[in-house]
Write a structure and sequence with these properties.
The complex is a heterotrimer. Chain A is mainly alpha-helical. Chain A has 6 helices and 3 strands, in the order ααααβαββα. By secondary structure, chain C is mostly helical. The longest helix of chain C has 27 residues. The radius of gyration of chain C is 16 Å and the shape is elongated. Classes of the chains: A mainly alpha, B mainly alpha, C mainly alpha.
Chain lengths: 164, 130, 92
C-alpha cells in the first residue's frame, strides 16, 4: 500500500519542498496541503516516464559529493576566468579526452552528466552506446591522464557508491 | 519610507553583485573571443553557475534582512538553472559534433561507438553519421 | 537605497549590458547556427540576472516570477532549437 502510494518517496519530498520554496515558505496549512497533494500525485502520474527506479543510498557520500562539486565549481570558475582573459602563449588549448566508465546505472550517469556540465571547463559531449566510455571536452588540457584519473576518482566513484 | 539596511548586509550584497557582473562580462568576452566552438561553450558556464549563485545569494541576504525573515525564494533559480543548463549544453555539444562530423571535419574526434554493434537498447539519438 | 548599494547595482548593470551587447555580436556574426543558439541562451540568462538585480533595486520580490519565466522560455527555446539542428525536427 505504502509502496503503491509513494513509488518515489524522495521525489515526493522534493516536490513538496519545491512548492513551499515557490511560495516563499509561507507556512499556511493550505500550501502544505497543496504541496503534499502534488507530491503524491505527480510521482504516480509520471511513473511510466521514469524507466529505472532510483536506488539512493549513503546520503553522507552524497552530501560530501555535493560539497565537493560546489568547491570545484568555484575553483574551475576561477581557472576559466583566467584562461578566458589570457593572451599569447598562455591561451588555453582545449581538447577532447575519452574517459572509460565503470558505472552503468543510468541515473548515476545522468547525475554525472549534470555535474560535468555545471562545472565550467568540462563539457560532456558523447556517451558510447554501450555506456563504456565518455567523450569530454576540457577547456584547458595539460595532462589528459591526470584529468581522467581526477574525473573517475572524484565523481564516478562516489556516484557508484550512491547509485549502485 | 523604508529604513536603510545595516552596513554588514549592504557590503556583502554589493560585493556579490559586483562579482557576478564581472564574471558575466568575462563569459561574454569568452563567447566573442575564442575561435573554436567547443572552446566558446565553456565561458557561458561562468554566467550559468557562479554569477547566478552570487546574485541569488545577494538577493537571499537582502530580502531576508529587509523582511526580517528567511526568504529562500531565490533558491529556485539555482535549482532550476542546475537542472536545465546540462540539457542545453549536452544538446548543443552533440549538435556541433554531429554536424561537423557530417561535413567531414578532420578535427573532430571519431565516434566512440563506431566499432560497437548496435545493441537492442541503444538509443536512436546517437550522433553517429548515417 | 544607500549610495554604496546603488553604485554597486549601477556597476553590475553596466557589466550585464556590455555582456549582452557582446553576446549579441556573436549572435549576429556567429558562423554556425549553434553559435547563435549559444549566444541566445547566454542572452536569456543575462536577462534573468538583470531581473534579479532589478528585484533588489526596487525592493520587490515580484521580479522573481519574471526571472523564472524568462529563464524557462530561454531553456525551452534553446533546447528546441538545438534539437531541431540535431535532428531536423523538434518532436519525433
Amino acid at each position: 500500500m505504502m509502496r503503491r502510494m509513494f513509488p518515489a518517496p524522495l521525489l515526493s519530498l522534493a516536490l513538496l519542498a519545491l512548492w513551499l520554496l515557490l511560495n516563499n515558505a509561507s507556512l499556511g496549512l493550505g500550501q502544505w496541503l497543496l504541496g503534499t497533494f502534488l507530491g503524491v500525485l505527480v510521482p504516480l502520474l509520471t511513473q511510466s516516464l521514469r524507466p529505472t527506479p532510483v536506488r539512493f543510498r549513503r546520503p553522507w557520500v552524497a552530501l560530501r559529493l555535493f560539497m565537493q562539486v560546489g568547491y570545484d565549481v568555484i575553483v574551475w570558475n576561477w581557472r576559466v576566468l583566467r584562461g578566458t582573459l589570457a593572451t599569447g602563449k598562455r591561451m588555453p588549448r582545449g581538447g577532447f579526452v575519452v574517459v572509460p566508465l565503470d558505472m552503468r546505472d543510468p541515473n548515476g550517469l545522468a547525475v554525472l552528466a549534470a555535474i560535468m556540465c555545471v562545472i565550467p571547463g568540462t563539457i560532456w559531449s558523447e556517451l558510447a552506446l554501450d555506456r563504456s566510455a565518455l567523450l569530454v571536452h576540457m577547456f584547458d588540457l595539460d595532462d589528459a591522464a591526470a584529468e581522467i584519473e581526477l574525473i573517475k576518482r572524484r565523481y564516478e566513484r562516489p556516484l557508484m557508491e550512491i547509485f549502485e | 519610507m523604508i529604513p536603510p539596511l545595516p552596513l554588514w548586509v549592504e557590503i556583502p550584497v554589493a560585493l556579490l553583485l559586483a562579482l557576478s557582473g564581472v564574471f558575466t562580462l568575462v563569459a561574454a568576452i569568452g563567447v566573442v573571443r575564442f575561435r573554436s566552438f567547443f572552446q566558446r561553450m565553456h565561458p557561458p558556464a561562468l554566467a550559468f553557475s557562479f554569477s547566478a549563485w552570487c546574485v541569488t545569494l545577494a538577493s537571499i541576504l537582502y530580502f531576508s534582512a529587509q523582511d526580517g525573515a528567511l526568504s529562500l525564494h531565490a533558491w529556485l533559480i539555482i535549482i532550476f538553472l542546475s537542472l536545465t543548463v546540462p540539457v542545453t549544453t549536452i544538446l548543443l555539444s552533440r549538435t556541433e559534433l554531429f554536424r561537423r562530423r557530417n561535413s567531414g571535419d578532420p578535427d573532430m574526434p571519431p565516434p566512440l561507438s563506431a566499432s560497437v554493434p548496435l545493441s537492442a537498447d541503444a538509443d536512436d539519438s546517437s550522433p553517429t553519421p548515417r | 537605497m544607500s549610495p554604496l548599494l546603488f553604485s554597486a547595482i549601477v556597476f553590475t548593470m553596466g557589466c550585464y549590458i556590455t555582456a549582452m551587447a557582446l553576446a549579441l555580436l556573436r549572435l549576429v556574426r556567429g558562423p554556425s547556427a549553434q553559435d547563435r543558439v549559444l549566444a541566445m541562451d547566454l542572452i536569456c540568462t543575462i536577462a534573468m540576472l538583470i531581473l534579479m538585480v532589478l528585484a533588489i533595486r526596487y525592493r520587490s520580490a515580484m521580479y522573481f516570477e519574471a526571472a523564472l519565466l524568462v529563464s524557462i522560455f530561454g531553456f525551452v527555446s534553446s533546447a528546441a532549437m538545438a534539437k531541431f539542428l540535431l535532428r531536423g525536427e523538434v518532436i519525433e
